[in-house]
């Protein structure tokens, strides 16, 4: 093992939820990712749809137990001194598969922490030869930095717990009701209102975003922004592109992602007539889905691309039949989502 030290940090991350084209739902998860040498560890693994055990929606006692285990204040949860680093975002069951690693003490004084022997594990025993991540680690962390990052979660009560409620404002009650139901299904709270002026400041502070329908006037939008400003609340504002539920959910998911741009996989989406420009920061699977309304305001959805992209900017041709008229493109990776209208 190299004697060099790696840096250790924690950073907010998101597993974007959504309404998928097959009608199923993908849960929204907020969690703290492990940042090793300034880069999310999840990005250094294969393109996994996974979250760390330090998620905002796990019960406080379980969250604390995970932290204490990583600090060696509790026994390792798996045989061989192994710990779950990333697990299934839907159920947390080991049978779905998890990235695990052996964690041990290191250094002359035994104060360092070493993460080694990363593997994909589906039962109680890890098969390193068959399922090991042979190009990852070992990582040797200075004990002081490692403990400081994790102990903050215990002493300050700091958790990956951003405001996960959305205030919906619009003229089409039926659309708002469907949108609210979809958001609640994927784990995001949603309420509908016409006027935020009478909402108490303490309640306004529970919202992470406000979504406006297309029929909401600029005067009404300004009044809502004024109410949040007076309450000292910084929220993201979403201007709904069209009354298409999966599209609006994707817009809201993007708005709720407050992680730094450099720590996201998907960082750019520009759609012009005939092609999409997609920018990614690490190799990952990207899906492009087109949504459009026909003359009778019926929704049409079509998957245009589903493949792996290397880091960089890519130009992807689009099917003109799927993007005619008023249309929009949703780009999705395992951790983030972007939305762009078709520009002609």
Main beta sheet: 4 strands, antiparallel
Structural class: alpha+beta
The largest beta-sheet arranges its strands as 6-7-8-9
Count of β-strands: 20
Unreliable residue runs: none
Mean pLDDT: 89
Q: What is the number of domains?
A: 3
Order of helices and strands: EEEEEHHEEEHEHEHEHEHEHEEEEEEE
Structure description:
By secondary structure, this protein is α+β, with helices and mostly antiparallel strands. The chain folds into three domains: 8-155, no CATH class; 163-239, Rossmann fold (3-Layer(aba) Sandwich), CATH 3.40.50; 259-344, Sandwich (Immunoglobulin-like). 22% of the residues lie in helices and 35% in strands. It contains eight helices and 20 strands. The strands form six sheets. Strands 6-7-8-9 form a four-stranded antiparallel β-sheet. Strands 11-10-12-13 form a four-stranded parallel β-sheet, with helices on one face. Strands 17-16-19-20 form a four-stranded antiparallel β-sheet, covered by helices on one side. The longest helix is centred in the middle third of the chain and has 13 residues, at 143-155. The termini are far apart. The model has no long low-confidence stretch (mean pLDDT 89).
Break the fold down into its secondary structure elements and pairings:
Elements: E1 8-15, E2 18-19, E3 25-26, E4 29-36, E5 39-40, H1 41-44, H2 60-70, E6 82-86, E7 98-106, E8 112-121, H3 128-131, E9 139-141, H4 143-155, E10 165-169, H5 173-185, E11 189-192, H6 201-204, E12 207-212, H7 218-230, E13 236-239, H8 245-256, E14 266-272, E15 275-280, E16 284-293, E17 299-309, E18 312-317, E19 327-332, E20 337-341
Parallel strand pairs: 10-11, 10-12, 12-13
Antiparallel strand pairs: 1-4, 2-3, 4-5, 6-7, 7-8, 8-9, 14-15, 15-18, 16-17, 16-19, 19-20
Helix pairs in contact: 2-4, 5-8
